[in-house]
Amino acid sequence: MKKIYLLIACLFFLVPFASAYKLPGSTIVNTPAPPSSIGFLPTGITVAGDNGPGSSVSQLNFPSGIFVDATGYIYITDGSNSRIQKWAPGYSVGVTVAGGNGTGSQLNQLNFQSDVFVDPEGNIYIDL
Q1: What is the CATH number of the domain that holds 75?
Q2: Total structural domains within the chain
Q3: Nearest C-alpha neighbor of 5 from the set 124, 128, 119
Q4: Per-residue CA distances from 62 to 67, 77, 83, 84 (Å)
Q5: Phi-psi category of residue 90: left, alpha or beta, with phi > 0 → left and psi -120 to 50 → alpha
Q6: What is the CA radius of gyration of the chain?
Q7: pTM of whole model > 0.70?
Q8: Beta pairing partners, 7
Q9: 10 CB-near residues (< 8 Å, 6+ apart)
Q10: Cα dihedral 2/53/127/90 (nearest 10)
Q11: Is residue 48 situated within a structural domain?
């Protein structure tokens, strides 16, 4: 059985391009400086939510977090719709895998989710 976990505690992420970090009880860790220029491909394809903001299965409204699993499925936190949408590779519609029942604190509701992670077993972790 796949499980959905809600992460209520704040997670601490380190910015990868800072020059050094000093965490309590640790030594200083040097990281590489950012490159002087970062390029990107000038062309691309839209893989999810290309139909304007909304709440249908082909729309997103204030997406904030994204996760792509090893099989190419895309998980997106859909903030204003209080849901997590899962998009299969090549599909133009998503499937709600968490929330989608309005904003709230019930087990079938989300409230301002910010990020999503899916482990190799398919368990979904949601940062609130």
Answers
A1: 2.40.10.500
A2: 1
A3: 124
A4: 15, 8, 11, 12
A5: left
A6: 17
A7: no
A8: 127
A9: none
A10: 40
A11: no
Say how far apart CA 76 and CA 45 lie, in whole Å. 16
Q: What is the pLDDT of residue 50?
A: 75
Q: Confirm whether 30 is domain-assigned.
A: no
Looking at residue 35, its amino acid is: P
Residue 98 has pLDDT above 70, yes or no: yes
Q: Is residue 123 part of a domain?
A: yes
Residue 3 to residue 86: CA distance in whole angstroms: 15
Please report whether residue 103 resides in a domain: yes
**pLDDT tens digits, 5-38:** 544 433 333 333 333 444 455 444 445 555 555 5
Domain that holds residue 121: 54-128
Pairing of β 29-30 and β 63-68: unpaired
